[in-house]
Amino acid sequence: xxxxxxxxxxxxxxxxxxxxxxxxxxxxxxxxxxxxxxxxxxxxxxxxxxxxxxxxxxxxxxxxxxxxxxxxxxxxxxxxxxxxxxxxxxxxxxxxxx
Length: 98
Fold this sequence. Notes:
By secondary structure, the protein is α+β, with helices and mostly antiparallel strands.
């Protein structure tokens, strides 16, 4: 078994002048991607192989200058083996019943 894959989303509330700092932090961490962005907030996608790494990213983000709050709004754990399997599409699902 390869372990687990943790997929989560974080809402980062920050001062408008701190957007570049949050972008730079995100770019420097492979586990993070910006999913949506506004003047004073953004949604980050976080994909890690353990729950502790999510908490570490949240802690580090809260310490950035101008960051007001970081909220975990979604967390899903999936077996890495399960993620390696092909996804079943509606077409393949309908063909399975025939």
